[in-house]
Amino acid sequence: MKSIESVLHEHRLFPPPAELAADAAISGMDAYKTLVAEAEADYNGFWGRLARETLTWKAPFSKVLDESNAPFYTWFEDGELNASYNCLDRHVEAGNGDRVAILFEADDGTVATVTYQDLLQRVCRFANAFRRRGVKKGDRVVIYLPMSVEGVVAMQACARIGATHSIVFGGFSAKSLHERLVGVGAVALVTADEQMRGGKALPLKSIADEALALGGCEAVKSVIVYQRTGGKIQWNADRDLWMHELAQAEASTCEPEWVGAEHPLFILYTSGSTGKPKGVQHSTGGFLLWAAQTMKWTFDWKPTDVFWCTADIGWITGHSYITYGPLAVGGTQVLFEGVPTYPHAGRFWDMIAKHQVTVFYTAPTAIRSLIKAAAVDEKVSPSNYDLSSLRILGSVGEPINPEGWMWYYTNIGGARCPILDTWWQTETGGHMISPLPGATPLVPGSCTLPLPGIMAAVVDETGQDVPAGQGGILVIKRPWPAMLRTIWGDPERYQSSYFPEELGGKLYLAGDGAVRDPVTGYFTIMGRIDDVLNVSGHRLGTMEIESALAANALVAEAAVVGRPDEITGETVIAFVVLKGARPEGEEAVKIANALRAWVSKEIGPIAKPRTFDLATTCLRRVRARSCAGCCVR
Ligand code: WTA
């Protein structure tokens, strides 16, 4: 957590560049305030207008928001649409079929260009293949794929036929994949033989096989495999199918399945403070509206832009700002398979120059690690690359420290590109609090002001507003179209986690602490107020890691805390009481390594504790997240 003093101490102000402001979707603070006032004066009218202007509907909606079953809100409920139609067909029908949708750069630097026409045909072929395999509206499909055009195609193909996708990040273990396959009751799984990252081939299909062998997912009738490397894999002829063979056999047109606006577009699992990860369920209409609208507002998207979001499609950022947002507006985007440090730590800067990227969106962890790399090796310094194509920079997933902000602003943006510090969550579907590039004066480390229509506030434990300058709990006071609809299969948990009685049952509890500046009213996020860690911008529940450790035969009890880290924001520290004698020296190292590997296998490498303390006898204070180390000998 940041200290309030350090937050309120930051007074550097960076006004929007005049040239950018002149031509921006929201130009100047007055334009921003006009939209805010429009939403306040007529909330339903405001959202209804945006939904009609931004999306193409098959059947119009007659009602905007239904609050009768709060907090199970519905939006545009009797309207009908299809997400893939909005992302593909409508651009082709408007004569933009030849526009580049995706500039794909592989791990080894090979580039493939996919136009809207190509993408539509690939999605249609795959959607037809799904249909032929019996996948239909309302079914769930799990996707366990690397960063690839195929990943976007699989997601869009699900949307086209009304199947609900659930992506599992390619770094998750067989156990995590299995939990999600069972959790959503998947009928099909899309995976790849292997994935390429940093010059190495890593398995996917064999992990998928392992997950399926754990049992309980007999509903999975088809395992569709994208051939990425041609590496050797096991083949189960009853179930396994090559993606390219399936697609080749199918027609390149496919009538979209028109669905109601509330139809679940996807379920994405994310860590909470208690229990197992939650399946966050998003709608079709509300989610897509906000993904597209924030492309226009936050990123000031223009047809001439080359947009690049470096997130993985396995996380919400990849859903909103790779698969849906950029395509819904008809944009050209870069899609990157690899990692920022391969073959060298100048890869991002090289790719910005090569593809003439204009809007670049990444995570503070990546920036901090590249600052360090450039300090060590002059050859990978951004000053060696022509970054003049850039006009807007974004940051997401974790707090950006003012030093990192200044480096990003100066060395990547050449002191001419606004930095959009976008605060949002898996549950919010899209940006909530963020500067607007042509309107908001920037303050390093602050996500500034809520987007128009988003009623964010800072309150105390009883739900009362706290004065500016005083820290509190970040809440959203009114429902918004892109909010999660429920937790898949667990509506009670949805209600108790996000609309707790303590706050009056009506405020959306984000789980972050925040403070507002007394002069500007700007929000600064102070960090999570619950037991969720943020490691390299990835959410991890302490309880999840504790349960994984406790499941190991050597472990009697375990407690996990986060420790601030210069590069990754936070790092995982585990305190463990072993069943046997307390190990010393080499033996302790061996056990720590075994437990680290265990957590990798149980959850995934991202959850691995950095350090272990095996000498602990009392975990009470650690659990209370206030460990003073008093019991550690
Ligand atoms: C954190 C990622 C500070 C926050 C889109 C939130 C941030 C959690 C920011 C959601 C930001 C996200 N400044 N903290 N700009 N953006 N966070 O669900 O703690 O993976 O609650 O969504 O990341 O993480 P999630």
UniProtKB/TrEMBL annotation:
Listed GO biological process terms: acetyl-CoA biosynthetic process from acetate
InterPro entries attached to this UniProt entry: Ac_CoA_lig, ACAS_N, AMP-bd_C, AMP-bd_C_sf, AMP-binding_CS, AMP-dep_synth/lig_dom, ANL_N_sf
Signal peptide, first to last residue: none
Residue ranges annotated for the AMP-binding enzyme C-terminal domain, each copy included: 544-613
UniProt-recorded Gene Ontology molecular function terms: acetate-CoA ligase activity; AMP binding; ATP binding
GO cellular component: cytosol
NCBIfam families for the chain: Ac_CoA_lig_AcsA, PRK00174.1
Family: Belongs to the ATP-dependent AMP-binding enzyme family.
Full protein name: Acetate--CoA ligase
Originating gene: acsA2
